[in-house]
Amino acid sequence: MNPIISIDNLCKTYDTGFEALKSVSLDIKEGEILALLGPNGAGKTTLISAICGIVSPSSGTVTVSGKDIIKDFRQTRELIGLVPQELTIGAFETVWSTVNFSRGLFGCKRDEAYLEQLLKDLSLFDKKNDELRALSGGMKRRVLIAKALSHEPKILFLDEPTAGVDVELRKDMWAIVRKLRASGVTIILTTHYIEEAEEIADRVGIINNGELLLVEEKDHLMASLGMKQLILELNEVITSIPELLAEFNLELSENGSSVTYTYDTTEGGANIADVIHAISEAGLVFNDLKISQSSLEDIFVDLVKGAA
Fold first, then answer.
1. For residues 258 and 235, what is the distance between their CA atoms, to the nearest angstrom?
2. How far apart, in whole angstroms, are the C-alpha atoms of residue 120 and residue 170?
C-alpha cells in the first residue's frame, strides 16, 4: 500500500541561515497514529507546517495521497485538518458560526448533523451560540479541534494539542483520536506528554536539531532500545554486594534492602535464571522480585542526549 504522506529529503533553511529541517525523509501509512517527539525547537512544527503548505521548504518534496503539496496545493490541503499550537481564533463569532464557516471554506456541503455531533463529542454543543471571546482557554482549544475536523479530513495534524489544557479535555481529545483512527483517519501528533504517545501511538518518530533520528513501531522501539531491570527485595539488609556477584554489576539500594540487575534487551546479558542462582549461591535470600522496563520517556531522553 502506498503511503498517504511521503516526505523525501525535506530541508528548510531560513534567511538567517538557521537549518530547521535537515534532509528529513519519512513515509506515513494510511490510518496510523504517528507521534513526533522532540524538544522545543527540534523542528516538529516546521515539519508539520511544510506538509500543510504553511512553510515553503528549501528543497525536497512532499506528496499527500500521491499529489505534490506545492503543485496540487488545493487538493492536498483539502485532505488535511490542522490543530495548531496557538489559539488563533476570532473574538466575536459564535462557536457554531466559526466551525460552520471552516467547513464551507473547503467547499463541503452543509451537514448540520455532523457538526452537531462533532460539538457534542468535544463538549461544545451547549456553548454553540456563545461568542469565542467568552470561552476559557480550554474551550477555545476545543473549538480549534472542531474547526480542524469540520471538513472531515483524511489526515489530522495535532501540534501540541493538549499543552496547558485540563485533564477533561485531554481525555476527550484522545477519545476522539481513537474514534477517528477507527474510521481510517491518519493522525500525526506532536506532544510533550510522552506518556500519551506511549499509550496511543502506533509509531514514534524522534526529531532533534532538525534531524529525524528514527521512526519505529512503538512496541518494537521499546523492546529493542529499552533497558530492563531485575529488582530483588532482600530478606535482610546488607552493606555491600558479595565479590562472587561482581561479574553481574549489581546495584545495591541506598538502604541496602534490594539489589538491581540492569541489562540491555538488544545485547541480552546474563540469563535471568543464572543471576538469581548466583545471588542465592552467594548467600543472599530474597522475598520478592520484579522486572521493570524503560519507558518511552527514558528512551527519548537517551536518544536526544546521544545525538547532542
1. 9
2. 15
Q: Are residues 88 and 56 in the same domain?
A: yes
157 in the same domain as 31: yes
- What amino acid occupies position 39? P
Are 206 and 277 part of one and the same domain? Answer: no
Secondary structure percentages of the chain, helix, strand, coil, to 5: 35, 30, 35
Domain count for the chain: 2
pLDDT for position 187: 95
Q: Classify residue 110 by its DSSP letter.
A: P
C-alpha of 57 from chain center: 23
Instruction: Mark which of 189, 207, 222 sits at the end of a domain.
Output: 222
Q: What CATH number does the domain containing 302 carry?
A: 3.30.70.100
Which strands, in side-by-side order, build the sheet including 258-264? 251-252, 258-264, 227-234, 286-293
Domain residues for 288?
A: 227-307
- Give the angle 191-196-198 at the CA atoms, nearest 5°: 110
The verdict on 283 and 169 lying in the same domain is no
Global pTM value: 0.73
**Do 231 and 87 belong together in one domain?**
no
Q: In this predicted structure, what is the pLDDT of residue 170?
A: 76
Nearest to 201 by CA among 72, 34, 49, 47: 34
* Closest C-alpha among 264, 279, 275, 189 to residue 223: 264
Q: Mean pLDDT in runs of 10 for the chain (308 residues)? A: 90 93 95 88 90 93 94 93 79 91 91 94 91 86 90 92 71 81 91 74 89 83 69 89 87 90 65 83 86 66 63
231 and 217, same structural domain?
no
How far are the Cα atoms of 18, 238, 302, 304 from residue 42, in angstroms, in the given order? Answer: 12, 46, 15, 10
Residue pair 37/190 in contact (Cβ under 8 Å)? The answer is: yes
The pLDDT assigned to 191 comes to 76
